């Protein structure tokens, strides 16, 4: 459970031609009235020696900065600007993690950042991806800049404890209003988690030299110095976590140093990655790794999109949770991530989805009051050419994806290669060997990601049960009475315009069936679904015998969560599958989670959610060989 997010309540002070935001909640300024940008550089960038450290990053090295209190984003933009100035010309990557309890509204953010004309090109990119005020982690990616940001909306007390330590935070900006205005942020529990996410070599900087902070850091064995503060301020805090000193270097220490160097060389390099299966899971993973500069080979036994992912159009249609559950709710988080992710592709169409309340209408419609403005609209009657007796919740920020266009753009990436091959075996060795069904060695890779839908289970000894669910979409000519092109409808089934002349209807749902011929009875099923909610409109549609369709099979886990990650430790074999009925919605976020696990990067979901996605969550049950339900094929 988390609290619904409240945006920052601000006053503005006009100082030397700029608007300085002041928090009414805390009674403190967001940045110094005496040139906040220079102070940020002095305290946070120089305080962590970032010019030198960033300039010296190795090829493929990942550097992570953590911040308490995102505020106006000034620190992060100044960091990004420094990164532009000093970053080496290689594949190193800068990632920032920031936590914010009271995010500025977008309007206030724009006004606050107007103060810094030299940061405008970066501020504009930040503003374009600035998330909705909903609790949880929001990943903003700027791949051309080799820069990314995880903005965790929520209280530092709730957020830090659930951050998974998939990476070490190398440098910290301890910002968060003066301890006298906001003692909460400087409590031991927050600092303990900051230290948990750090390691020897991590550094810390703050404008505050409050006793509570100094004592807290010292208690963890972190060395503190107090150089001059910005302009008239006497001092600031600079700290480094040094490994405990040894009396003399023994041969063991030298071995350890050598091992560390070897380990770094193994980590900071271009990885060769094989992906098995070119559906939305495989394509999304391929994109995630290629965007980071790694070399990807995708194999598919038939052709890309030959499985469940090959429908002419896919709808992003989340069932949103009560707002206080948003921080850990996969569907709600994946929806926000997917909208931001697909918007970068030509294949994306922004569209609204009117979700009809077939039952529990009050429960569904009250979500409109809980979510921030301009996301949900509760409507009692349908405001369109369709008439229905059902109330509905209109999700204003949704979308649809043209899978074939998406596939083309992903496969055009210079680091992604595709080969048609049925993979039959994966053998872990120094590198992982991938074999075809004719026992031919297809290649050797650093990592293999199995995205083969239900066939994924063939590659592992113990695998979560994946139930087959047959489904068929139908499309038909409705040029006489097309629907609003910007509106989809969801009612157990779904409908929207496929193009100017055709309506697409989804989808039949037959558990425990794995057949995939197009059947008239499934067209009838889709007709009955639309007829049950829009009877008048359904009567205007041409006869089902004239409809076209595509049938395929979903792979569904028993708990409706995807299967993400490793099944066996120390084997470089991972999986992303079990996407059920929501593959297009889940795949982009799950691919980021997977990339974090494979590459040792920051993870964009909480440890609570990560456990729910884990490929090993059924381990006990699987080993006991008592599956919840058995697929009947
Ligand atoms: C009718 C229908 C409508 C749907 N509508 C939507 C929607 O609107 N929105 C949405 O989000 N989701 C929708 N879904 C769900 C979504 O399509 C699935 O969740 C998604 O396709 C799963 O993707 P995948 O990549 O895991 O599997 P698939 O797309 O099935 O891809 C698996 C790939 O692995 C390949 N493969 C298998 N074995 C091997 C092997 N041994 N070697 C090499 N390759 C192999 C297959 O050929 C296949 O291409 C719908 C599903 C159906 C059936
Ligand atoms: C001084 S401002 C940060 C300025 C910011 N770093 C910048 O560059 O603009 C402090 C921020 O900490 C946030 N904050 C205060 N208490 C918090 C808490 N308990 N958890 C998370 N954020 C908190 C405030 O809302 C505010 O945005």
Percentage of residues in helical conformation: 25-40%
Oligomer: single chain
- Distinct compounds present: flavin-adenine dinucleotide, S-adenosylmethionine
Please provide the count of β strands.
30
Mean pLDDT: 94
Radius of gyration: 26 Å
Largest sheet: 10 strands, mixed
- State the helix count: 19
Write up this protein.
- By secondary structure, the protein is α/β, with parallel strands linked by helices.
- The protein is built from 19 helices and 30 strands.
- α10 crosses α17 and α11 (330-342) crosses α17.
- The longest helix is centred in the middle third of the chain and has 17 residues, at 251-267.
- It is globular and about 80 Å long.
- The two termini are 39 Å apart.
- Residues 626-633 have low confidence and may be disordered.
- The protein binds flavin-adenine dinucleotide and S-adenosylmethionine.
- Residues 8, 30-31, 69-75, 99-102, 155-156, 175-177, 182, 184-185 line the site of S-adenosylmethionine (SAM).
Keywords:
633 residues, alpha/beta, 10-stranded mixed β-sheet, 8-stranded mixed β-sheet, 26% strand, disordered C terminus, binds flavin-adenine dinucleotide, binds S-adenosylmethionine
Helices and strands in order, then pairings?
Blueprint: E1 10-15, E2 18-23, E3 28-29, H1 36-45, H2 50-55, E4 62-68, H3 74-86, E5 93-100, H4 106-113, H5 120-129, E6 136-142, E7 147-153, H6 156-159, E8 171-174, H7 188-196, E9 203-206, H8 211-219, E10 223-225, E11 237-240, H9 251-267, E12 272-276, H10 280-291, E13 295-300, E14 314-316, H11 330-342, E15 348-356, H12 361-365, H13 367-370, E16 376-379, E17 392-401, H14 403-411, E18 416-420, E19 423-427, E20 432-436, E21 441-445, E22 447-450, E23 467-477, E24 487-491, E25 493-497, E26 502-506, E27 510-511, H15 520-533, H16 535-539, E28 548-556, E29 563-566, E30 573-577, H17 583-599, H18 607-613, H19 619-623
Parallel strand pairs: 4-5, 4-8, 5-7, 8-9, 12-13, 12-22, 13-18, 15-24, 22-30
Antiparallel strand pairs: 1-2, 2-3, 6-7, 9-11, 10-11, 14-17, 15-17, 16-17, 19-20, 20-21, 23-26, 23-27, 23-28, 24-25, 25-26, 29-30
Helix pairs in contact: 1-3, 7-8, 10-14, 10-17, 11-17
Bound molecules: flavin-adenine dinucleotide and S-adenosylmethionine (SAM).
Flavin-adenine dinucleotide binds at residues 276-282, 299-302, 306-309, 311, 314-315, 422-423, 451-453, 455, 471-473, 506-507, 552, 554, 577, 579-585.
């Amino acid at each position: 459970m988390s609290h619904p997010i409240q945006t920052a309540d601000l006053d503005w002070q006009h100082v030397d031609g700029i608007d300085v935001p002041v928090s009414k909640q805390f009674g403190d300024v967001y940045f110094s009235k005496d040139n906040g940008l220079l102070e940020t550089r002095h305290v946070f960038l120089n305080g962590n020696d970032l010019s030198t450290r960033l300039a010296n990053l190795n090829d493929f090295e990942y550097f992570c900065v953590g911040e308490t209190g995102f505020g106006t984003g000034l620190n992060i933009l100044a960091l990004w600007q420094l990164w532009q100035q000093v970053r080496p010309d290689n594949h190193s990557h800068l990632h920032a993690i920031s936590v914010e309890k009271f995010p500025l509204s977008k309007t206030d953010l724009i006004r606050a950042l107007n103060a810094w004309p030299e940061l405008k090109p970066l501020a504009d990119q930040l503003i374009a991806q600035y998330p909705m005020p909903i609790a949880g982690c929001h990943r903003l990616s700027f791949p051309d800049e080799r820069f990314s940001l995880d903005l965790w909306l929520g209280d530092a007390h709730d957020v830090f404890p659930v951050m998974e330590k998939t990476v070490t935070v190398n440098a910290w900006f301890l910002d968060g209003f003066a301890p006298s205005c906001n003692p909460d942020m400087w409590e031991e529990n927050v600092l303990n988690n900051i230290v948990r996410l750090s390691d020897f070599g991590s550094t810390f900087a703050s404008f505050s030299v409050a006793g509570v902070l100094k004592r807290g850091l010292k208690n963890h064995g972190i060395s503190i110095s107090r150089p001059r503060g910005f302009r008239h301020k006497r001092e600031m805090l600079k700290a480094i976590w040094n490994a405990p000193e040894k009396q003399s270097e023994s041969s063991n220490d030298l071995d350890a140093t050598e091992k560390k160097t070897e380990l770094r060389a193994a980590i900071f390099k271009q990885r060769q990655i094989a992906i098995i299966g070119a559906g939305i899971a495989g394509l999304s993973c391929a994109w995630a790794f290629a965007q980071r500069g790694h070399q990807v080979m995708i194999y598919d036994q038939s052709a890309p999109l030959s499985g469940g992912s090959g429908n002419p159009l896919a709808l992003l249609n989340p069932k949103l949770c009560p707002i206080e559950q948003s921080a850990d709710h996969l569907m709600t988080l994946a929806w926000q991530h997917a909208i931001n992710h697909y918007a970068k592709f030509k294949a994306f169409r922004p569209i609204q989805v009117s979700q009809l309340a077939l039952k529990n209408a009050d429960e569904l419609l009250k979500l409109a009051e809980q979510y921030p403005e301009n996301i949900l609209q509760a409507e009692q009657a349908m405001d369109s050419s369709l008439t229905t007796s059902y109330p509905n919740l209109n999700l204003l920020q949704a979308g649809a994806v043209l899978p074939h266009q998406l596939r083309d753009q992903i496969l055009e990436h210079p680091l992604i290669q595709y080969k048609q091959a049925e993979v039959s075996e994966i053998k872990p060795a120094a590198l992982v060997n991938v074999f075809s069904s004719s026992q031919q060695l297809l290649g050797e890779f650093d990592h293999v990601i199995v995205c083969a839908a239900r066939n994924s289970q063939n590659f592992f000894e113990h695998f979560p049960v994946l139930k087959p669910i047959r489904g068929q979409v139908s499309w038909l000519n409705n040029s006489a009475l097309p629907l609003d092109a910007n509106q989809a409808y969801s009612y157990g089934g779904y409908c929207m315009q496929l193009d100017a002349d055709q309506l697409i209807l989804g989808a039949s749902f037959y558990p425990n069936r794995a057949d995939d011929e197009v059947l008239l009875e499934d067209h009838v099923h889709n007709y009955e679904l639309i007829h049950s909610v829009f009877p008048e409109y359904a009567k205007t549609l041409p006869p089902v015998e004239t409809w076209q369709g595509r049938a395929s099979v979903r792979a569904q886990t028993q708990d409706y969560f995807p299967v993400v990650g490793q099944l066996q430790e120390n084997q470089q074999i991972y999986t992303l599958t079990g996407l059920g009925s929501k593959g297009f919605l889940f795949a982009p976020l799950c691919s980021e989670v997977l990339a974090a696990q494979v590459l040792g990067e920051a993870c964009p979901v909480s440890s609570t959610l990560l456990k729910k996605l884990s490929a090993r969550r059924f381990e006990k049950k699987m080993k006991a060989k008592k599956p919840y339900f058995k697929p009947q094929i």
